[in-house]
Amino acid sequence: MLLAQTPTPQMPPLPEGPSLDRVRGPVEIPLLETWQVLTAGTIVLVVSILLLWLCIRYLRKESSQKPQISPSKVAIDELNAAAKLANDDDRFAVQASAALRRYFEDGLHIPSYGRTSEEFLRSLKGNTLLNASFNESLERFFAQCDAMKFARKSSSTEERSALISAAKQLIDIADKTKENAPK
Q: Cα 166 from chain centroid?
């Protein structure tokens, strides 16, 4: 038995529709408009500058309220700390001469660090602020400190006390000279 082949039914033709030439894909819609982004950025920038300005103003106010300690007071405190060192001539001499050098650096604006005692004293020769007797006293002070530091010269409590007194006198004289100097 042969089955008769029957033709398969054809689909009817499609009706005329719109042309597919002009069809586009999905259109992207931005989350924010350009003007909104620029406005938000400007606001953030202005607020950041304002906060920075307030922080700087606050820090300046805080730093100006701190009491300024004079270089002579700092040097005298360091000399007193050096005087308390017992039986350590080397450390005593290092701290005492460093206190005086720091005073010259900070109080009188005379460079002293990075120089030997001789170089420092030589640099003071042309200084009109300090007189010859001051320079001689300073030279004796540094000579005694250098003898303790480098020649390991031992010193008594009285000698240390005399060195501290001499250094304090030098600071006092330099302060008075600085105050009376023409500005």
A: 34
pLDDT attached to residue 183: 56
Give tens-digit pLDDT for 8-19. Answer: 778 888 778 777
Nearest to 100 by CA among 145, 44, 38, 46: 145
Rounded to whole angstroms, how far apart are CA atoms 30 and 24?
A: 17
Measured between alpha carbons, how far is 74 from 151 in angstroms, rounded to an integer?
28
Q: With beta carbons less than 8 A apart as the criterion, state whether 163 and 137 touch.
A: no
Cβ atoms 126, 144 nearer than 8 A:
no
What one-letter code names the amino acid at 9?
A: P
Asked if residues 117 and 97 have their Cβ atoms less than 8 Å apart, the reply is yes
Q: Note the maximum CA span of the chain.
A: 145
Write the CATH number for 86. Answer: 1.20.120
Nearest Cα to 79, choosing from 175, 141, 167?
167
Q: Say how far apart CA 135 and CA 111 lie, in whole Å.
A: 15
Look at residue 8 and tell me if it is in a domain.
no
- Report the domain count for the chain: 1
Q: For the CA atoms of the chain, what is the radius of gyration?
A: 43
Q: Which domain holds residue 151?
A: 71-180
pTM: 0.60
Which pLDDT belongs to residue 1? 53
